[in-house]
Automatic annotation (TrEMBL), chains A, B:
InterPro entries: Isoprenoid_synthase_dom_sf, Polyprenyl_synt, Polyprenyl_synt_CS, Prenyl_diphosphate_synthase
Family note: Belongs to the FPP/GGPP synthase family.
Transmembrane segments: none
Biological classification of the source: Bacteria, Pseudomonadati, Pseudomonadota, Gammaproteobacteria, Nevskiales
Pfam family, one: polyprenyl_synt
Gene3D superfamilies, A to Z: Farnesyl Diphosphate Synthase
One GO term describing the cellular component: cytoplasm
Annotated protein name in UniProt: Farnesyl diphosphate synthase
Cofactor(s) annotated in UniProt: Mg(2+)
GO MF assignments: metal ion binding; prenyltransferase activity
The UniProt record lists the keyword Metal-binding: yes
Length: 295, 295
């Protein structure tokens, strides 16, 4: 991976952090404990979803300031989903991004409210995004609501919880993850499309396909890392899936086959970018970057 | 109250129910348990917030089909907030709208996800509302996000939980309720304004003021009913505030003074509608209707 690209990732991460800083209420604003906990829950993380938005924006030739709002919104939704998923009634996790989870650092009621408030803020950020035309803002809100709701991310989480202790077939497992993590990752690419005034159907199709492939590859990789990764590197508890008796790709198709499948999906994701020619590198690099992650 | 008005309320309640039916996924759609629980959590209730939107729409001379989306959205937000507020880590309630609360009927994880999905749906409904111009939809989404987030409803709930066992002053109590219930009630009136293409600043000021007054009156009445009401009539557990050692208006200012204050606020709410002349009755009737509620 080029040094140039590493710099660019760092630039986008800092850009996102600054944008989040502007849209999150100050930590001392009333009610301070809630706002402090909201900021705590948005700290850190790999920011892959935001990077996909900025990367797609580069491929489409969009100015970065058209992408700050969707990048913030998607990271706020992602952060809220982690806070709620970690709750004792859900995955019951103590560790997230290398620190105590929100309900361990604060308390359970605060964690519920933090998630609720981050979700509202995500939609508010898009609705208030004056750098974008009204039509683009509305399309993004539609995508985010559809991708994160009961037919997307939240629906996937419901199926995931209901499937504990059950053995899923490969199609069932894939459907679960298309909802749970895939929908939101796909929305990153589509929101960048929404910001593009001169988008062709072929471009949208290619980016949508890239999003689907990366989303699935990411999840398979997650399952593999849960087995192979160390807690210190992961920043969350390793081996959780086994303990929770969750169906995973390695469990359903075998560890080596799962690793091979992820490689194929990443390769296919890079291949679908061909129509973008020499504009494709930011998303090619991101595919490499995600493929190379250790946590 | 006129028979005509009772019929009209029934008409709007049925209209809202039909609109909710259209926007909520079918109870057998995948994942079925989640969708069934979402519908369960949206059943019943007084629908006061939706009635305020339809009532304000009548006062402003708007067609009812411009108001279905905001009426649904506000009731979805209200329903999600009740599901989450009832959770064991929050108010820990077993009874809501005369039936088991969502986490008692289903389970805690489902209740968390139901709330999350209802919130996403609320914003989705507004973004997809083709009966409204793009600008109106965006303004409504801004209002709903601001009113329901950490500087509105969720912030109020956080302060409410943090205040248990503490004695609040009257200004602190009022600030709490302006956030917790007031912001969303006020948003009902303002969303109707957003749908109005020919709104004058005076009209918006009057409706905003009406919303603030009704919101506060409603909360004082809630505290009074918690003391005076019977569980059967309330549809929720009575005397909860006392048990939870919550500051209430009757506790802070005395029962009689609280009842008197509510009467004055309802009177003032009716008075601010004077500029609407003979268009005011729907909101005058609604003030009477809310003032006369027994639960």
């Amino acid at each position: 991976m080029s040094i140039d690209f590493s710099h660019r990732l760092e630039f986008y991460r800092r850009r996102l952090q600054a944008a989040l800083d502007r849209c999150l209420p100050p930590a001392d604003a009333y009610p301070a404990r809630l706002h402090e906990a909201m900021r705590y829950s948005c700290d850190g993380g790999k920011r892959l979803r935001a990077l996909l938005i900025y990367g797609a924006g580069e491929v489409l030739g969009l100015p970065a300031d058209a992408l700050d709002a969707p990048a913030c919104a998607i990271e706020l939704i992602h952060a809220y989903s982690l806070v709620h998923d970690d709750l004792p009634a859900m995955d019951d996790d103590d560790l997230r991004r290398g620190r105590p989870t929100c309900h361990r650092q604060y308390d359970e009621a605060t964690a519920i409210l933090v998630g609720d408030a981050l979700q509202a803020l995500a939609f508010g950020v898009l609705a208030h995004a004056e750098a974008l035309p009204e039509g683009a803002r509305l399309k993004m809100i539609q995508r985010l609501a559809d991708a994160s709701g009961s037919r997307g991310m939240v629906g996937g989480q419901a199926v995931d919880l209901a499937s504990e202790g059950q053995t899923l077939s490969l199609p069932e497992l894939e459907s679960l993850h298309i909802h749970k993590t895939g929908a939101l990752i796909r929305a990153c690419l589509l929101m960048a499309c929404d910001a593009s005034p001169e988008l062709t159907p072929d471009q949208q199709y290619a980016l949508d396909r890239y999003g689907k492939l990366i989303g699935l590859a990411y999840q398979i990789q997650d399952d593999v890392l849960d087995i192979e990764g160390a807690a210190g590197e992961l920043g969350k508890t390793a081996g959780k899936d086994l303990v929770a008796q969750k169906s995973t790709y390695p469990a359903v198709m075998g560890l080596q086959a799962a690793k091979q499948r992820a490689i194929e999906l990443f390769d296919e994701a890079r291949a679908v970018l061909a129509p973008f020619g020499d504009r494709a590198p930011p998303l090619l690099w991101l595919a490499d970057h995600i493929q190379g992650r250790r946590h």
